[in-house]
Amino acid sequence: MKILITGGAGFIGSHTADALLKLGYKVRILDNLEPPVHNGRWPKYVLGKGFELMRGDVREKRVWERALKGVSAVYHLAAYQDQRPDFSKFFETNTVSTALLYEVAVLKRLPIKKVILASSQFVYGDGEYRCRHNACELAVRLWRRRVSLPP
To answer: What pLDDT score was predicted for residue 133?
Structure first.
């Protein structure tokens, strides 16, 4: 079984990838490697471990189309973070990307059995998280209703 981890070059994503690999899963890591976190390079702690590394931006539908091929589950951990955030980029990365994930999976009838969504550090922030969280839940509910998936 192959699992996709978005944001897999980050702290939580890389540890999740390590744990899944130890459990015998094949792991594909998708990350955009953007500053201020990665500066365009794969961190040493994900290299040479047997992960399939894929560079791409979760805000792009074509990236999801490539990344979701052949996977059975998704850990959607990608999140935008910055000291002085661009709120439109924050919303696109942390919310629109979730809608794109479901759009591609449903419209292409991909055999994805499980999607795990995670929060970002903004859960401790000053209110933007609530909007993102509710928007992600709404996107999931709308797609489930559209294709008659159980809750």
So the answer is: 59
